[in-house]
Structure formats: C-alpha cells, structure tokens
Amino acid sequence: MLDSLGYGFMPSAWVIYYFKTTFNINAMTLGLIFSINDMLQSISAIPSAILARQFGPIKSTILTQIPCGLFFMMIPIAGQSLIPATILYFLNQSLSATDVVPRQILLTSIVSSNDLPKVLGTVNIGKQIARSVSPYFTGLLAGSGLLWVCFIISAALLITANVLLAVNFRTADAEIMKKQSVHHDFEQ
Hints:
The chain is built from ten helices and no strands. The protein is mainly alpha-helical. The protein has a single domain (2-187), classed as Up-down Bundle (Growth Hormone, Chain: A). α1 packs parallel to α8 (116-143). The termini are far apart.
C-alpha cells in the first residue's frame, strides 16, 4: 500500500501538469509524450513475466521497481530540459508496470485459492484508498510551487515499499520457484 500512496502523489494528471508548466510545451507535444508513455507501459508486461520466471517474483520486482523509482526521482533534476526529463519519464514508465505479474504470482502462491478473491479485493480497495489520500497533499505542494517535491516523495515511497517487500519476503522466491519446478516436473 505504501507504493500506492506514493503513486497517488504523482498520477498522470499531475505529471502532465508538471510537464506543461515546467517546459511550456504545446498540447500536441504533450499528447505525443503521453501516447508513447502509454505504449511503453503496456509493453512492459512482457518482460515482467520473463523476469519473474527467471529471478522469482520478489527479485524481479526489486530489479525493476527500484530503478523505476530512481528514474522518477530524477525528473525534476532535469530542470528546464524537456528531452532529459522525457527520457527519464519514459524509462520510469517502461518499468512501472513490471511489478504487476510478479505481485500476482506472489499473492497466488501465498494465499489459498478460496481466500484469493477476498484478498485481491481487499488489496485493491486498500490501494485505491492509499492513492486517494496523496493528491490533496500534491495540491498543497503544487500551490506553493513545490510540485517537483512530489516526484521525490512518490519515488521514495515506491523504493521504501520495495525494500520492505524484499526484507519481509526474502525467502519467498526460492519457495515459489521450488513449487513451480515441482509442478513443471510433474507435467512432464
């Protein structure tokens, strides 16, 4: 939920606002940037499954989400330069959805199939509530000319959430991959 709280600080509407006000770009350029962004985000599901299979759900999440947060954190460092900020945003977004498949693997591996619908529903409600709190604070910071700080807060929360995930589930990859290999060997 901590990562969802972080994502709530800079949803795409605020990122668009930041790009518009910081770089003073026209609507067509904004549309192009965010169209490419959406394509990158949707394509990122493909390597997500491959990485989860190769490294396990926890390691693959850490390998993608910490750099994702770092790229996002660096966007305001680009200053008034549109191209570096856009590249950092594209790098961030190309990794932002790579945790979806690994987290699904993790949840389906540790939660019984009978409880899975309840758990997934509860997780989604919690994520939505966490995301709904942050925009208020983003508005306060933006109103004070500090919108750039929200990139740092968002990224810091994402990175912290993933470090906590790694610490709390450090043995999960081995256990999950062992289960998968047993199922795989059984099928042969």
